[in-house]
Amino acid sequence: MPDTYTPPPPIWAPEPGPAKARGLCTDCGLSRGPMAKACGRACQFIRPDYEGAERRVHGREAGATGDEAFFGVIHGMHRARLDPPSEGAQWTGITTRLAARLLETGAVDAVLTMVPDPHDRWRPRAAIITEAEGMAAARGMRMGYAPLLALLEPARAAGHRRIAVIGIPCQVYALRQIEAALDFESITVIGTPCSDNTTTENFHHFLSRLTDRPEAVSYLEFRADYHVELRFDDGARREIPFLKLPLSDLPGYFFPLTCRTCVDYTNRLADITVGYMGGEGDQWLIVRNARGAALLAGLGDEIRLEAPGTAGKRKGAVAGFIQNTERAAGGLPLRRMPGWARGIVGWLQPRIGPRGIEFARARLEMKAAETVLHLRRAYPHRMKWMIPDHVWRLVAPYGLTPEEGERHAAAETQTGRP
Prior knowledge:
This protein is of the alpha+beta class. Helix content is 29%, strand content 17%.
């Protein structure tokens, strides 16, 4: 890394044990600890039960129509921003500020989250943070897997009784499946959406295709105005239109199969989801339950909330994306766009393309279609257990319906559909 990169301050990040060999796995960390045998029932990529988990966590299942059919249980949904924004945040810093506030008020003893590796700003490292000031080190985006749940046992051994966890969907799903067996007084979950993660090494290759100074890039964001923004250590900025991204050489395996078959983009089991897809340039919040509502209320006047907007039409873009994915024979869609931008190339006209909530709906339908198509090609025998009903509902308008053996018997009985 260049001399201008300053590593984060020391944060307690114990080295986890070795990962167990698994098939579809994002190394959430569960297999590295004493509860490794729970992977069979806790893994999102084996036999997920989102309906049952939603009842336990939120008190009810998500509705089958309206916005809940896309995004999961909604207690409240907002376009939001911190005012003023946190320095060094990816957007305005809502995620880390929520966690810092929990530490400030004593609501939790520790926060389990990701910080940058001391030697590579883009490589995530799971860490336990016990002081509010330490949350500044967790700001910003990182790419790659990090075994967050491997920190549950060290946190418990250290005497932390009330914890918060900032995690991506596959981590949060596993946590929710085992939390009743954990010896904590409370677990608060702040979730971020996730799609198409890749290895840190792959991400460095991606950066090298965008600039001849990849080692000096300090910030990268796919923005709602159809541009990628780069910021550099020396203060320089660069904006690249999606259409000009030089990505034609990305291999088909650039995004692992796990991320192309994920059934939960919006972190349905978090107490609050903090993302940007539906924010139209601001952040996008989905409050899931009373705990999430209390989290948001704790920020008081620090946060500005508005009703999310929506505009444009998604149907043509999603249908085109599905066609490209079907023709790609298991690799990236033929236009070779990155995960954040795939499918967008067909509707790079900001005045008529999906914006706000319609943009988010489009992305959810694309992810659902990817799940069906990639599993149908690679693991057809796993489809009936890996694909929840909410995913089938999203792809049905596009003619993607379960074939024989692709849906488990209970779902077939409930819906009357094969």
